[in-house]
Amino acid sequence: MSQGAGGSRSRLLLLAGLLLVLGPSPTSSIHVYTQREVYGTVGSHVTLSCSFWSSEWISEDISITWHFQAEGSRDSISIFHYAKGQPYIDDVGSFKERMEWVGNPHRKDGSIVIHNLDYTDNGTFTCDVKNPP
């Protein structure tokens, strides 16, 4: 915790998940990389990095989905989806007006930014990448 002129500011721990998506054969797999732990301060923003590697070319049908599982919850919700060259931020839930797409699939990047962090953002974020043949 750090002390500022306006009082104390609390830090959030955001966990970014690592997900390996396998295709029909081992040569068609995608390796997805995220930071294991990400910290942010309430009211600030944080970038959730998601990079991936594939031995195949990046298809126009590539899709990237971010899921969130709140701390202490068993349920996971989809908060972002990229498909057919367009980002889709879910229009319901606590992230709807606080999320920004900063990734570029052609650069093998599926990163997002979450603005105005809140205590309720503590949890696990998972990046899922699919690159259909």
UniProtKB/TrEMBL annotation:
SMART domains cross-referenced by the UniProt entry: IGv
Q: Which GO terms of the cellular component aspect does the record hold?
A: plasma membrane
Q: Name one Pfam family in it.
A: V-set
InterPro entries in the cross-refs: Ig-like_dom (IPR007110), Ig-like_dom_sf (IPR036179), Ig-like_fold (IPR013783), Ig_V-set (IPR013106), Myelin_P0-rel (IPR000920)
Q: Which UniProt keywords apply?
A: Disulfide bond, Glycoprotein, Immunoglobulin domain, Membrane, Signal, Transmembrane, Transmembrane helix
The way this protein sits in the membrane is described as: Single-pass type I membrane protein
Q: Where is the Ig-like domain?
A: 26-133
Write out the transmembrane intervals. none
Just give the chief location class: membrane
The cellular location(s) given in this protein's UniProt record come to: Membrane
Q: What is any one GO biological process for this UniProt entry?
A: myelination
Query: Where does the signal peptide begin and end?
Result: 1-29
Instruction: Please state which protein family the record places this protein in.
Output: Belongs to the myelin P0 protein family.
**What is the name listed in the Swiss-Prot or TrEMBL entry for this protein?**
MYP0 protein
